[in-house]
Amino acid sequence: MKNENFLVNSTEYSPKKVMVIAELGTSHGADPVKAGELIEAASEAGADCIKFQIVYAREILHPNTGEVLLPGGKIRLYDRFRELELKPGFFADMKERVEKKGLLFLCTPFGLESARELMELRPKCVKIASPELNFSALLREVASYRLPILLSTGVSKLADIEEALSIMEEAHGGAPLCLLHCVTSYPAPETDYNLRVLKSLSSVLGVPVGISDHSLDPFLVPVLGSAMGAAVIEKHFCLSRDDPGLDDPIALPPDSFGQMVKALREAEKAGADVTLDAMCRERGRELVEGILGDGVKRLAPSEKANYERTNRSIHALRDIHEGEIIERDMIASLRTEKILRPGLPPIWEEKIIGRKAGNFIPAGEGIRFEDL
């Protein structure tokens, strides 16, 4: 696998030295004290990198996208994302705390505004989440920064990944890039991971590949992924799975995360063949083979229903009436999510501006060919 060109924080990460990312996401709940506790715990657990997310609800979805069931009851998903919005100063503080630990600060933007705010913090690397793999405007923006990029590939087909790489190459072809193989399901079944696809993707696309793991087991996917050549392992991190963060139920608490890191370092020393033999003895060859899969890139069974709903498509920001000329401020490339219909892919944004609506398009709904 071609990992020699993916440099992060002046350190070369490859299958011989897997970079372990503790994805804090929004588990801090906007509380700087809890965020500090998470950073401290992730550092002690052996993380190389600590990741945050800059969330602005308006960059991600439409208010009409539907509800999500949380322990306190149902809430509009848009409102839940609004609760996660923070001022840039919070992330500047987090970056300082992370780097004082000697770790890499990483953050995910979800739109152009959050990407530009992130750039003001002078990060050493940027992560793009799976739902934004087809968000062409964001891909071009981030590629223009000429920073190393981690690009998650959940709920995607090979053609989607190739299109994303083509867009980024056109914007700026010199930035080091690592794909993160991912299954966009929460939690994701370990047997959906098809880990032999790591070598397939790296060989076909000529880039290093890692894993963003949403499965519950601390060892199976990370350790087997390392044996398959993963350059990076990302896992959600929490203080407790009972905490109220959106991803806390599938995150690893400190003890489990630390055990995962220890197992990864032991696997690096032992080598792929010894690691695979040991995993087969300990967990059973049938399970291991089920996780390794056949290496063909396809949508995993648990994420098929999310395709074209988790990904970005063009949606109406307000009611657009029949015969009205579509202007830029009427549309946005958003996640479809719960109850809305998907629209055209984001690459069509410029092509539909100036076109006439052929029928009434309700606020929030995806804009389709038949609507023009």
Enter the CATH topology name of the largest domain.
TIM Barrel
Give helix % range.
25-40%
Kindly report the oligomeric state of this protein.
single chain
CATH superfamily of the largest domain: Aldolase class I
The neighbouring-strand order within the major sheet is: 7-4-3-12-11-10-9-8
**Major sheet, described briefly?**
8 strands, parallel
Question: Into how many domains do the coordinates divide?
Answer: 2
Class of the largest domain in CATH? Alpha Beta
Shape: globular
Number of helices: 13
Q: What would CATH call the architecture of the largest domain?
A: Alpha-Beta Barrel
SSE arrangement, N to C: EEEHEHEEHHEHEHEHEHEHEHHHEEH
Strand content: 15-25%
Question: What is the secondary structure topology, with strand pairs?
Answer:
Blueprint: E1 7-8, E2 11-12, E3 19-25, H1 32-44, E4 49-54, H2 57-60, E5 67-70, E6 73-76, H3 77-82, H4 88-100, E7 104-109, H5 112-120, E8 126-128, H6 136-143, E9 149-152, H7 158-171, E10 177-182, H8 197-205, E11 209-213, H9 220-227, E12 232-236, H10 254-270, H11 272-283, H12 285-292, E13 312-316, E14 331-335, H13 349-352
Parallel strand pairs: 3-4, 3-12, 4-7, 8-9, 9-10, 10-11, 11-12
Antiparallel strand pairs: 1-2, 5-6, 13-14
Helix pairs in contact: 1-4, 6-7, 9-10, 9-11, 11-12
